Each structure stands twice: as structure tokens, then as C-alpha cells.
TrEMBL record:
Source organism per UniProt: Lasiosphaeria hispida
SUPFAM superfamilies for the chain: ALDH-like (SSF53720)
Name of protein: aldehyde dehydrogenase (NAD(+))
CDD domains: ALDH_AldA-AAD23400
Catalytic activity entry: an aldehyde + NAD(+) + H2O = a carboxylate + NADH + 2 H(+)
Any GO MF annotation of the entry: aldehyde dehydrogenase (NAD+) activity
Phosphoprotein among keywords: no
Keywords: Oxidoreductase
Family named by the database record: Belongs to the aldehyde dehydrogenase family.
InterPro entries for this protein: Ald_DH/histidinol_DH, Ald_DH_C, Ald_DH_CS_CYS, Ald_DH_CS_GLU, Ald_DH_N, Aldehyde_DH_dom, LUC3-like
Domain spans labelled Aldehyde dehydrogenase: 41-493
Amino acid sequence: MQVMESGRPITALAKEAIYPGLPPYQSFHNTIDNALTGTKTTRHTLDPSTESPLPAVPVSTQDDVDDAVRAGQEAFSAWRERSYDERAEYLLRFADAIEANLDGFTELLGREAGKPMQAAAMEVGFALQHLRETAKLRIPEAVVEDSDERTASVRYVPLGVGVGIIPWNFPFLLGIGKLDAALLAGNTFIWKPSPFSPYTALKLGELGTKIFPPGVLQVLSGDDALGPLLTSHPSVAKVSFTGSTATGKKVMASCAATLKRLTLELGGNDAAIVWPDVDLARVVPKLGALAFLHSGQICMNIKRLYVHEAIYDAFLAQLVAFVKTLKIAGAGDAEAFTGPVQNGAQYARVRDLYGEVAKQNWSVALGGLDSTSATGERKGFFLPPTIIDNPPDESRIVVEEPFGPIVPLLKWSDEKDVVRRANDSMMGLGASVWSADVERAERMARRLEAGNVWVNSHFELAPHVPFGGHKWSGIGLDWGVEGMKGWCNAQAVWVRKL
């Protein structure tokens, strides 16, 4: 382990670049009460494109958590009293400062997450849009009775110190999507990034010290021990977690002891149902991209493709041809569509699923572990995009969420039966229906058991529209006014007129 320097003052202006380029990014600190602080021990992750070590980051302790929570509590009383417009102005200034460092953040995100340049730029760009659009939202006070004798209304009041636990697949956008709603609603916020992708979060915290009052936005890096320190802390009022269902259950159990408010956005096994009346030339590239975007490492990727038997063979042939055109490369390649699996642990899990191909005698239409044409002989956690041709419904590739670049294509013929098959999962995050008959497709979509359903699109999101999961895919909502309400307590206000 290395020893890092202690906290140092911040003097740069909000729109100065925090760093000139890549490399070097050698200095990463926690942000506690607007000071950059170090820890006695540090750790580092690996660049998933090259497997080379990235710089050291802090390993936070109980003392660091206590200090951050205390600072958040002290800042809360003044922050909550600011108006919506005042808090929104801080978010807009933060967005401007991020935009002034756009190239640096994009490069750093690509390096830590294994995202090709265009994917990293898309994530940072959407995060900027998210900040600016969320800043326009307000939670209105609702008057539910107004008579000669009394009025009764419902308002939403902030909770206190909130914690966002952010996954490694979208470490920039998903953190911003929790931060902006929490802060706009009047809470203070502690950002806990994934141990696999802490770098952009730590630099965002550093940038935030130039924008926000002390204690309003703080960032703590750590190992697997850090999450439980935050979820069990008695003075944390709310935890918003995005990650796996298995870890989400542990987060929920930890929060229960102190009755914390909780939002969980968990895994998905999204189904897409394709009717035979679609235009294959238009639809196949969209579905292929939505299945293999970020190497399948998105909770709302299409992970089960149900294609009507009348067009199945033609669809499969065109999907294989399309996926073959997708360039696979690391973060530095501006032309790449998809990159590596983000970390070694996930790489091993996905390789294990690839290993089922031979064991279960699945039919491989494209890819598989024996295929080296897509990835070549290179360092990094690369796996070839793989399409499994009509495996049994009970197969692991159908039942489990792969979270990697492998997808099953499945035949269907009966409408009622395919809806049953699509709903036959403990997951319920997203689902879509594709058809030229929009009314029929919408009727089918409304029968799907998922928190987000689409017709002729998938993974379509907007800052003002809430999203969340059904069943084991989550509890509560992120984004939009409904997501902001999750950072508040509802309060009934009765006024008797004397």
C-alpha cells in the first residue's frame, strides 16, 4: 500500500481545467467538507483495455465516513433553507464547470470504465443534460382541501444526509442522476463510487469544492468495506443504490436497522419482442446496438430477443451481419463501438457463462470463446460479441442476466405465450415490443411486467421521466419529479381558519 498526502487547499477557479490531459492523472483524493483528504492506505484498479494499473485512490475508514456525515449534517440546515432556484443555480454552475473540463472527464471515464471514446462522450454529455434539465424541476405543494374552515396540503421536505452508491458500468451519469435530485430537493450528498471505477467521481468531488458550500457534496472512495459503513451509519437519512440484486438485498437489510429511506435500482433481464411486420433493415441495427452497447454491461440492455418464427431466420442472418460490423477496441479508439468487460471479476463471470456453450451444446450463430476474430490477441478484458441461436428457455443464458456481450435469440409464434415467457423472470426492469402496428404493440407492452416499457425503442431515458424496476429489479424511482420525491418526506399541513 502507498501513503497519500493529506488534504490541501483548493484555489483554482470553477472553469479552470482540473487536469491537462491523460496522462497524468496521479492525484486522487476524497472530498470531505470541501477539503481534499488522503487516507493512510490506498488501492488502485486496472485499465480494462490494457490491464495496466491506474493511479492510487483512497481507502476510506470509519473516521472518514463519520467526518463526512458530520459535515453533511452541519451543511444541511442552511442548504435546505435555500430556495429551489438557488439550489438549481448551483447545479447549473456545476454543469458549466464540468463542461469546461469536458475532454478530460471524457478521457478519464473511457480509461476507468473501458468505454470507447464515443461511448464515454455520450455518457458525459447526457450527464450534463441531466444536470441542466433536472435543475428545471420543482416539487409543487398540493392543496387537497381548501374550505371556509380549513386547508390541507401536502409538501415534500428534504431528509438530511443522503448517500449515493454508484456502479462501475455508468460511473459518471448514474452518480450525477442521484446527486442532482438529492441536492435540488434540499439534501446534502455523499457519493460512494464503485471500487472498480472511482476516478471521475473523485475528480467531480474536487470540482465540486469550487462550486458548492462545504459539506453539500462529498465523495468517498474505498473498498468493499465502505458501503456497509455508510448504509449502517445512524445519521445517514437515505441511501440510493444502483447495482446487482444480490448486493441490493444486503443494502436493504443494512438500512433496515435504522429505518433509512431507500431506493434500489437493481439488475435486469430485459426482453424485446419482435413482430413479423417490422422492417428488418431498420430494426435489426437498432436491436443489435441495444443488445451489445457497452459490451452488454447496462442494466437496460436487451438481454433476451424474442423474434417471431416467420422472420426468425432472416432476422438472425441480418443480426449476425450487423454485429460483425461493430468495431471492438479500447478507450483510445474513436471509431470503436464496444470495448472490454470493465473488470476482472466480471470478466471471469461472463467467461464462465461462455463456457456453458460447449457444456450445454448451445448453437452459436456468432462468437463464442473459440472466436478470436473479433477481439484479436491483445491485453484487456475483451470478449467477442456472441449470439446464441434459440436456446431452451431454462438455459442460463435465458434465465440469468449475463452483463456481458452475449445474447440469446429466441423464437415465438403465439402472442399469449411469448408474453408469458417474457414475464417469466424475477427481474422486471425494462421490456420492449417492436411492430409496425403501434396500437397492437402498445397493448402488448402494457402486459409486460417491467418498470419501463417501450414500443419500437428500448433504453430510452430522459431526465424528467422517472425510471425504476419491478420485482427483483428494484424499489422506488430515480429521475424526474417522482425521483426527487424519493429524496423527501411527504408532510401533511393542516391549517384551521379561525
